[in-house]
Write a structure and sequence with these properties.
Structural class: alpha/beta
Distance between the termini: 31 Å
Strand order of the largest sheet: 5-4-3-7-6
Number of strands: 7
Helix content: 25-40%
Radius of gyration: 21 Å
Largest sheet: 5 strands, mixed
Number of helices: 4
Length: 165
């Protein structure tokens, strides 16, 4: 996927601010990790230096997270959720479903998992099997999706409302 094909992710301002703070902290921590690697390197034989390898692994994880956050923040749509078209499930909507054969409903926010830290609602990604199946559907629709175990699951879409924070 090229930079121009990157999907736009909707984020609340609060979620954006939390992710930006995490990115800033990770970038500020780069010299600390570099010093740790250098200190461990000076201990001698690198083949048997667990501290050196652990520091390098941590550096790799942090750099991957930095790249992930930079891309997410670069492509994010921040603020009010996108308007739902005709009451259809879309990123930024609160969706209530009922699993076929069950009387109880489940309500969740359809959006980026990074929003989860800023809301009491459970958050399902639009890229998840359930989230993807619901996109573009409205109340009264029955949709099917394949669970990770390969089982086909049916849900009834009960309600779709805009997320209000």
């Amino acid at each position: 996927m090229s930079a121009t094909d990157a999907p736009v992710t909707w984020l609340t301002q609060e979620a954006h601010d939390l992710l930006k703070a995490e990115l800033d902290e990770l970038i500020a921590n780069r010299p600390v990790i570099a010093k740790e690697i250098n200190d461990r390197r000076e201990e001698g034989d690198l083949r048997e230096n667990g501290g050196y390898h652990a520091a390098r692994e941590e550096q790799g994880k942090q750099e991957a997270r930095i790249r992930q956050l930079q891309e997410l923040l670069r492509t994010a749509q921040v603020g009010e959720p996108p308007a739902s078209k005709d009451g259809k499930a879309a990123p930024g909507t609160v969706v209530t479903i009922r699993y076929a054969g069950d009387d109880e409903t489940e309500t969740f926010l359809l959006g980026a998992r990074e929003i989860a830290a800023t809301t009491e609602l459970t958050v399902y990604s639009p890229e998840s099997p359930l989230g993807h199946a619901l996109l573009g559907h409205g109340p009264g629709d029955r949709v099917k999706y394949e669970a990770p175990n390969g089982r086909e699951i049916q849900v009834d879409l009960v309600e779709v409302t805009p997320f209000t924070g």
